[in-house]
Amino acid sequence: MTGLETNTDKTKFMVMSRDENAERSLNMKTDNSTFERVEDFKYFVTTLKNQNYIQVEIKSRMKSGNACFHSVHNFFSSGLLSKHLKNKIYKTILCLVVLYGCGTWSLTLRENRRLRVCENMALRRIFGPETDEVRGTWIKLHNKELNEKE
User: Fold this and answer.
1) DSSP class of residue 143?
2) CA-based angle 67:69:73, to the nearest 5?
């Protein structure tokens, strides 16, 4: 056996549409092959649904990211690490956990916002509050300030 093997025995297909009334044919036939139509398909760790609803997948990825964040929480709360290094850890570990398989996602504005909120919460924990020089109180960083620090 030499070279890279490919799987030529693909027997299933899926049509993705947000239209609930999309055609529901069960099988497709060619000269010497029959393909079964499926409602969902597992691609790496992402489960794709034929109606392209990925809210459950995004929620699952965010839950995994949150669990990962809490497992390295000691690094982020440590005063020994610089904020630059904490940000680098965030981007190389946490973002990859949450966004793994995102190339298959078709985001709506609502889902995009949910991911952005998740990101901002993590960044706020990493950078922490800052002191207001004038009032001498702690203030929470706004989204624009978080983006500038990235």
Assistant:
1) H
2) 120
**58 touches 114 (CB < 8 A):** yes
In a domain, 9, yes or no: no
The neighbouring-strand residues paired with 48 are: 41
Return the H-helix or E-strand segment holding 27.
Answer: strand 27-29
List Cα–Cα distances, 52 to 25, 26, 38, 63, in angstroms.
18, 18, 13, 20
Please check whether residue 126 lies inside any domain of the structure: yes
Does this model's pTM top 0.70? My answer is: no
For residue range 14-54, list pLDDT tens digits in order: 666 666 665 666 666 677 777 777 777 776 666 666 666 67
Question: Which residues, at least 6 apart from 7, have a Cβ–Cβ distance to it below 8 Å?
Answer: none
Does residue 48 fall inside a structural domain?
Answer: no
**Cα–Cα distance, 123 to 141 (Å, whole number):** 9
CA distance 77 to 74: 5
Number of domains in the chain: 1
Nearest to 114 by CA among 56, 51, 59: 59
Q: Is residue 121 situated within a structural domain?
A: yes
Domain region containing 83:
54-149
Return the DSSP state at 91. I
